Amino acid sequence: MAEELSFPTGIGTSDPTTISLLGQDLAADLMGKVGFGELAYWLVAGRRPTPGEVRVFEAVLVALADHGFTPTAIAARLTYLSAPESLQGALAAGLLGGGSRFLGVTEDCGRFLADTLAQAGEVTDYDAVALDAVTRAKQERRLVPGLGHPVHKEQDPRTPVLIRIATEEGLHGPHLRLFEAVGRVHPQVLGRTLPLNGAGVCGAALADLGLPVEMLRGFALLARAAGLLGHLAEERRRPLGMDIYRTVDRNAVYEP
Amino acid sequence: MAEELSFPTGIGTSDPTTISLLGQDLAADLMGKVGFGELAYWLVAGRRPTPGEVRVFEAVLVALADHGFTPTAIAARLTYLSAPESLQGALAAGLLGGGSRFLGVTEDCGRFLADTLAQAGEVTDYDAVALDAVTRAKQERRLVPGLGHPVHKEQDPRTPVLIRIATEEGLHGPHLRLFEAVGRVHPQVLGRTLPLNGAGVCGAALADLGLPVEMLRGFALLARAAGLLGHLAEERRRPLGMDIYRTVDRNAVYEP
Amino acid sequence: MAEELSFPTGIGTSDPTTISLLGQDLAADLMGKVGFGELAYWLVAGRRPTPGEVRVFEAVLVALADHGFTPTAIAARLTYLSAPESLQGALAAGLLGGGSRFLGVTEDCGRFLADTLAQAGEVTDYDAVALDAVTRAKQERRLVPGLGHPVHKEQDPRTPVLIRIATEEGLHGPHLRLFEAVGRVHPQVLGRTLPLNGAGVCGAALADLGLPVEMLRGFALLARAAGLLGHLAEERRRPLGMDIYRTVDRNAVYEP
Amino acid sequence: MAEELSFPTGIGTSDPTTISLLGQDLAADLMGKVGFGELAYWLVAGRRPTPGEVRVFEAVLVALADHGFTPTAIAARLTYLSAPESLQGALAAGLLGGGSRFLGVTEDCGRFLADTLAQAGEVTDYDAVALDAVTRAKQERRLVPGLGHPVHKEQDPRTPVLIRIATEEGLHGPHLRLFEAVGRVHPQVLGRTLPLNGAGVCGAALADLGLPVEMLRGFALLARAAGLLGHLAEERRRPLGMDIYRTVDRNAVYEP
Q1: Fold of domain B104-214
Q2: Which residues of B touch C (CB under 8 A)?
């Protein structure tokens, strides 16, 4: 069967003499002229960011790149131990932990804030909107994304810094404002004071940059890819995977 | 069994008030002050790069981020089609194609050049060293990594640009010099003229930055992660996966 | 810090002379005495199945092993093309498509039936329960899992056969009964007649075997692992990946 | 551009009324009539196995399904902890550890034996061939695959049982004979006595079944998929991932 095929894309195409990316000439217009974070933003948003947007965006990627021996970092190291010839497999195994419970908070928080703002219409009083949203979440027994952290129980050090950077760049928009309001009002609803966590503030900042909330997890994954490469480079120089594995295995106890 | 455990790491640790990354205070010293590419370099190399090193490094990441509808981009889109709720799965599926035949060239080329230089000792005549290495490769029926490209049959547009950027930054070192020499001398051994490809020149440039050759594939993967996010964001807005899948499926022919 | 660690498991443990699996002596009691499907059932359910349960279970695995050039099969082949040295990466890439839209139907259907039965209490009239459930699904604009198939628009050939096998083995239980009732009553609610699809009947049959509904996707993945190995073995002997990739790439059209 | 496409496959095709698998009618001829292990064999080998071959093959799959808290099982559990909504991601993460150092032994051993036999031509004295092969391996500083085990230092309990099963089924062929000869002769070359391990004997048995050595890792992965599902089902019922993660994290020590 003869057929006409056409696969349209605005990402990349090439011919014998040129490589195009995002409608630009990759070699002539992008290499050496656009930063890597800037390119990642452009690829997902479909528009080139301003220098201020790049600074906030890269601050988010830096904030999310690593958080020590997370489950994802350990999974990547163990996979590297088992299959050291396949760095891509170890990296992929680590990224596969980028789901709902750890890295997912960034996206969940961005979506929560975006949905709340969409329902609220024009906002004059962020505290009132936040109070309403937190109250509804509590009634529906949903967690408010971005609140609380197992380690940073009082304050997550990333939160005020990212808010300051966004403010410096004139990018302190409605999502961050609402997120801060959540930080002020939630104690009167929940009966205790929780910190605004780093993953959450990153989601708020990314949403203020106009990035699509459905892709926010993607940026957390990109950031974490760099952190995982750091772990894997260290694992190559000074292995821990065997020690972690043996620690678990020698303390195994049969229990049906 | 009571035991003393200790898992040393120079990547990241945290306590209730601080997050450390690479021995720095993440919030106070890194966020907003270090770029994302810069951080990725630092994480793997264990030292902060200079601005010139960052420029070359980010040019490499930009060069490797995408090459259109590669097998990895298609695999990521098809996986997203099947499991759109798991962006991390689609990204991981794409990265798993970062193996020997496509993305692996960057690492293979860096290693080939580094091994050749290590055997050669002090080099005064790069063409002679290259001639020897290409001749041996031919005798042993090994391919010379970084030579040839299925699309860019005459010249890969990325190659001269990256060499120029490295030169501008004073980072045109022995690996790039040897790679250029391979470009000059291989026709007399192989009997035909092949272009120095983009993946290869990226490997040479990364090796000149002093990055460990065993980790070069990792940078290709990091770069590709950004490109794959671009494909997945586009797939979300304007899906192609179903059309690709159906194109294959409707042309299936049973043949034992 | 000295600490007592204990990681309890009923799956496997070993010492210098013995390997235990599920509390059995692997070498003495399992190898050559238990089938592979039987073992997979036992591992997940925590109890050894009867021969009849094994027959139904293996019929499900056979039914779900392959469905031609699915997105998952194509993704696995493309990943193998890019990284042929890493069979595990190609298999993993294929399995990562085992999400909500394709393989997920088995689990979704099992859960839908189990939830409906849990709410209904003791059932005397399956058609009434099915009618109520389909009506509610329609009102809430949810799809009824297990209904309809893009290719098998009239009848999915797997459905009657699996029902027959379950009946032969005395394992035609409430989930299959309810599923059949859905097949009878949905036209009066939805206004058109859809076939009961194979993924759905497999979910119903697995639920009737008493397997936990949260793990049903796992069996679909295990089945598909065998099918993917078939595709990858064929890809090694008679490659298609390059042809698929080029078909897409040569028909790429730039469109912002 | 109108084009003729054709993607030949002997695995699976379907039309509105039929699903074909391996040239058979899936519903009429395979479901309920072929076991799952049997189907996996058929898919990879391209021919239906005999009952004896099935018994040996399933004994191998049972032998390789699990080995307690392996790095792959831990990686799968940690990934499930992070992303419990994506069972496919946790399974894939576990399988990605199926590389050279752990699961790869099965394939490496099968290939070592097959290569040795191919070079030896017709064999009358297996001990002489084994002695020669082990001696060469030692000279070239290569490990002999299938020798030695970190836990089972004297004897791996799986080895004699699999040899017995293969013998019972008349499938004790040249690869197993050569493997046993390696067990007899290696002490005189290596100066110490190592056990023939379970992964190795499985590779020998699979090679004697005529399965392609390049796919042997695939069977180890299929077997392990079942074991990983067992771990994940247990992780769902009685989670360990958080405890493993915290054990590592609370013993992290910063060391540049």
Answers
A1: Cytochrome p450-Terp; domain 2 (1.10.230)
A2: 1-5, 68-72, 74-75, 78-79, 81-86, 89-90, 92-93, 96-104, 241, 244-245, 247-249, 252
Which residue is listed with tokens 């890439």?
C93
Chains that touch D (3 or more CB pairs under 8 A): A, B, C
Residue A101 has pLDDT above 90, yes or no: no
pLDDT of residue A148: 94
* φ, ψ (nearest 5 deg) of residue A171: -120, 30
| Segments of chain A assigned to CATH 1.10.230.10 | 50-245+249-253
Strands A18-21 and A24-25: antiparallel
CATH 1.10.230.10 range(s) for chain D read 50-256
Tokens at residue B22, please? 């690479």
Indicate the residue of A83, A98, A103 with minimum beta-carbon distance to D100: A83
Interchain pair B251, D7: CB under 8 A: yes
Q: Which residue has the tokens 């029902």?
A: C163
**Helix spans in C191-215 (H):** 198-208
Q: Among candidates D227, D27, B82, D39, which has minimal Cα distance to C228?
A: D39
> Can you name the CATH fold of D50-256?
Cytochrome p450-Terp; domain 2 (1.10.230)
What CATH number does the domain located at A50-245+249-253 have?
1.10.230.10
Distance of alpha carbon B163 from the chain centroid: 16
For chain C, residues with pLDDT lower than 70 are 1
Question: pLDDT per residue over C163-196, tens digit each?
Answer: 999 999 999 999 999 999 999 999 999 999 999 9
Say whether the ipTM exceeds 0.90.
yes
pLDDT tens column, D36-75: 999 999 999 999 999 999 999 999 999 999 999 999 999 9
At B99 the pLDDT is 86
How confident is the model at residue A199, as a pLDDT? Answer: 95
Encoded tokens for B88: 């991390």
Subunits next to A (3 or more Cβ pairs <8 Å) are: B, C, D
